[in-house]
Amino acid sequence: REQKQPVLITGSTSGIGFAIAETMARAGHAVMLHGLASPAQGEDLQRRLRKEYEVSCGFSSADISSEAGCAQLIADTREALGNPAILVNNAGVQFTAETSEFPTEQWQKILAINLSAAFFLARDLLPDMRATSWGRIVNISSVHGLVASERKAAYCAAKHGLIGLTKVLALENADRGITANAVCPGWVETPLIQPQIDSIARTQEIDTEAARVQLIGAKQPLARATKPEAIGELVLYLCGDFASTITGASLPVDGGWSAQ
Ligand code: NAD
After folding, report:
1. ipTM rounded to 2 decimals
2. How close is the Cα of 155 to the center of ligand 1, in Å?
3. What pLDDT sits at residue 244?
4. What pLDDT does residue 47 have?
5. What are 175-205's pLDDT values in tens digits?
6. What are the catalytic residues?
7. Residues lining ligand 1, CB < 6 A?
8. DSSP secondary structure string, 12-70?
9. Of 4, 69, 106, 246, which sits 20 to 30 A from 177 (CA to CA)?
């Protein structure tokens, strides 16, 4: 099968990232998987994509909470697939606490993974994108990059910051065939949100479905979680020809959450 431009998707061993990887592979892109998974898990995911979609695949388990880890990820990607013309900054972590009690390590970890890694990777991949006059950067921010919730100081700061970074990348590269955009999901059906649903079901003695509606409906007028594949399809669209004039945008996929 003819391969389209290689795409590096951070945090693609699970959840939204893996859904993006599958969508991009289905469309014929060579895919660099990445995340904190074992070599065996990485092998398994690569095998799935190669078999199902007949595309080239690589995997890196570099810890991108440091600049050196980001450099390692780029080296692993170049070795496996060559220069990625598409970068999807998706890896992210969460920790919730009142600001007055927020631990320093959690603040620094969230800023490092959710924001600084996107900066390091974009900075170091841009020269090659500029050399070919084509590139796509898609940053998976969050509705928490647009509005705030309590107990999420670090996450909201990082996700708002990621949108600011996206806008600068868009301006600096507007005449170079490179676009940069942010996607801002509300609730997405990933393993990440199940514990919160289970906890509501337990404490209020209601069934899982009612708990899910309650969790999601508390913030989203449209009380249904987005499927990870829907984020994948939007990323694919942003990487396609029809999106060549969409740049610097922050696109909510949030059931109306940020419209309020
Ligand atoms: P997830 O926990 O399923 O996946 C996170 C990925 O990041 C995993 O592959 C993990 O290995 C990787 N990762 C975490 N720390 C890392 C590190 N130090 N180094 C390398 N990789 C690391 O999460 P998800 O729900 O799929 O979220 C993906 C992105 O979408 C995140 O940026 C998240 O903030 C954002 N998001 C999620 C939701 C939601 O409701 N699930 C909503 C809005 C935004």
Report:
1. 0.99
2. 12
3. 97
4. 98
5. 999 999 999 999 998 877 887 889 899 999 9
6. 155
7. 11, 13-17, 35-36, 63-65, 90-93, 113, 140, 142, 185, 187-188, 190-193
8. -SSHHHHHHHHHHHHTTEEEEEESS--HHHHHHHHHHHHHHH---EEEE---TTSHHHH
9. 69
Nearest Cα to Cα of residue 119 among 104, 93, 137: 137
Task: Give the type of residue at 133.
Answer: S
pTM: 0.97
Name residues of the chain where pLDDT drops below 70.
none
Domains of the chain: 4-186+226-253 (3.40.50.720), 189-225 (no CATH)
Q: Which of 90, 159, 187 to mutate to test the pocket of ligand 1 (most atoms within 8 A of CB)?
A: 90
Task: Calculate how far, in angstroms, residue 194's C-alpha sits from the geometric centre of ligand 1.
Answer: 14
Q: Tell which one of 9, 12, 14 to mutate to probe ligand 1, the residue whose CB is within 8 A of the most ligand atoms.
A: 14
